[in-house]
Amino acid sequence: MQDTSTNYRYYTAEPLTNDQLRTLAPSIFAERPWAEMSDRYTFIPTIRIVEEMRKEGLVPYFAKQTISPVEGRTPFAMHMIRFRDTSQRGQKLVVGDLYPEVTLINSHDGGASYRLMAALLRAACMNGLMVSDSEFAAIHVMHRGNVTPVLEASFQVIEQFPKIMGEVGEFQRIDLRRDQQLALAESALELKYDERDDGSLACPITADAVLMPRRSDDSKPTLWNTYNVVQENLMKGGQRGVIIGANHRTRRVKTRPVKAIATDVKLNKALWTLTAKMAELVGAPTAA
Prior knowledge:
The structure is a single chain. The chain contains eight helices and eight strands; from the N terminus they run H-H-E-E-E-E-E-E-H-H-H-H-H-E-E-H. By secondary structure, the chain is of the alpha+beta class. It has two domains: about 20-160, no CATH class; about 175-280, no CATH class. Helix 7 (about 225-235) packs antiparallel against helix 8. The longest helix has 21 residues, at about 260-280. The radius of gyration is 20 Å and the shape is globular. Mean pLDDT is about 85; it is low at about 1-10.
């Protein structure tokens, strides 16, 4: 069976060229939709959107795509591209820096309409944070044969950045007690792992493990650091844990990274919302 996860990930310090995009996410260059699409589907090659966004000063730094288990579908499958403003082009990525990005998700197999979301690249770990809750909602654009609505949606996302950075500032000013950190981590684990029939969580690691920072700069127990530590550990995986099987035997495992685009987006969005709710609960409302 083919790997159904997203196996292409790539961030660069310089904008991606078309050759690099083609290597990372070939479905960006599809010249027609998947054969199973109806006649009502209006096809726009994603590369056309990329070229128009480049003209407006938004350039791609990241791309990946999904590998479909259905034969012949992968060349049209879901893909994700993250764009950054050219005013940041050539800047050195310094530990601790945040770069606002516009995330575009699309497919040519009916798996997704054009979806645009605000995102942040955290240079400390080259980790992409997805910013999307009730306030910073994703913008969906139907396939209607016109590039303009996609570009307009991109500009709407960019307009959210000052408010998002204000919210980040609030997260940075909030200190959490250990029990509050654990509550956030436990809730985050429930977002990634399913429940067993007996109601327990099918999770190989504890909340304490999820709160283990990978760098000393993340040790201070602010809400922002806690969010980043939890997000990085859940998204990148690699932590050692134990699974208890149906026969009650234990098995040592490593947690898996999140690769599928849909899971990436869903988990990232939920983590941001969870963090914003925690900010409200501890009595320090986020920026208005």
